[in-house]
Amino acid sequence: MGADPNCIFCKIVAGAVPCFKLFEDAETLAFMDINPVHDGHCLVIPKAHYPTIFEIAPGAIEAAARTAARVAKAVNAAVTPDGINLMQANGEGAGQSVGHFHLHIVPRRADDGLLFNWEPKPGDMAHIAEIAERIRGFL
Ligand code: 5GP
Ligand code: ZN
Question: For labelling alongside 54, which of 47, 65, 70, 99 has CA 20 to 30 A away?
């Protein structure tokens, strides 16, 4: 997959829109998010345009994961958060606002009140087993 002329992240890859670049290699780019949750919030993208996890090529997500691990360690050293979440949204229903696959590297503070954590509540085992069977049917 190549570039989408209407995609803001493709424009960043092409250098047509500026970014605070952290790292790049042949397949990936890491840059600061301009609406940061906390200091150090940044994004890792494949340079090629894949809208979501459903289209991304295996090599591209491997490369993005490799870059994310490298950049997360640097963020951890630079801003010494209490922890870091990697986050990735697919589709508007999951909160995706830019349709070019990206991993968020989100430094966290223990008391920051961010809402993408949830309270673990015990599930119904029969229901879990049924859903697992349904998913296995597509693998
Ligand atoms: P999503 O909501 O799709 O998971 O995340 C998209 C992210 O891209 C948001 O956190 C948003 O702040 C960031 N973003 C949107 N436009 C730009 C831009 O032009 N430059 C940079 N650096 N980040 C952007
Ligand atoms: Zn794109």
Answer: 70
